[in-house]
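I am writing to request your help with a piece of structural work I have in hand. The matter concerns a single protein, recorded as an amino acid sequence and a row of backbone structure tokens. Could you please explain, in whatever detail you think fit, how the structure tokens follow from the sequence? Thank you for your consideration; the sequence and its tokens are set out here:
>
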Amino acid sequence: MKKRFFFFFAFILNFSFSQVSDFKTIDFSKADNIAKLNEGRDLNNLPLLTHKLTSKLPTDVEKFRAIYTWVCKNVSADSYQHNKVSRNREKFKNDSLGYIEWNNEFKKIAFKKLLNHKKTMCTGYAYLIKELCFIANIECKIIDGYGRSFETNVEELKSINHSWNAVKLDNKWYLCDATWSSGYMINGNLFVQDYNDGYFLTDPILFAKNHYPIEKKWFLNKNLKVSKFIAEPIIYGETFQHQIIPIYPKELNTTIKKNEEINFSFKLLKPISKESISLVKISGDHQNHYKIYDFKNENGIITFKYRFKRKGFYDIHLKIENDIVATYSMEVTKT
């Protein structure tokens, strides 16, 4: 699957706070158009593809944008590969050498499938981004770690299951995830191509809500304890689309007393309207909207309150427009 997955070099890292807003003066439309004009090109000649994508762009960030967008929109996630690797991780969970031997053979097959059919899993996306950047003379790394979603690594880090990229632009490191930008799976076997720009040069604090690197320096912002990572509320691809960072409640599971006031808060990385924000409980096809109050927006920090009047267990969802962006589990006890 990759030629140089585990080549490591000594380098000096500049981990200053970085995100796509560093390039707010850059118009990415030209890079996006070039990626679109080269839609459907094959992977048999990576230097030629890189030249087509980058030669007419003046800056490294625009070149990287064209590479990233092209990969996300022209490579499909392969559920067969993902499921096969997951099964063998479980099979060899007590035999690391056996898994390494199996994986080394499997990577050869997977790499051919990427080149010939443009189908892969997360490591293939990260590898292809890195290879195209190498040809374009842009420093880029593959980052391996734990991806957290509503179905994996929820309450403990069970397995290393994800790969993404760090890219160096203007002497700063940035994070991105081409796999999760490219689309999503339905029922674990049907891939839907649906580009999500929120994973491109993402705010490191937001990125750390569902990405836990093996090498903690790749948090970029600060190290995060495993216990804190797995305690976080569940977030989704839509969280990245709307560019919000959940702040409070700090944990997925919260216990409060009946009639106790609870605060909700999150940070906006781009403007949204007050009317688009709601707090709901979902039962089948029905949604119950909670009457939130004391709503405030101070310097991009949204806060509001709610009071549960009955004891019980509640799965609560924060919504922006029609999208769920955070999920919390509340246990409401007697006063």
Q: What stands out?
A: The CA atoms of residues 244 and 268 lie 5 Å apart.
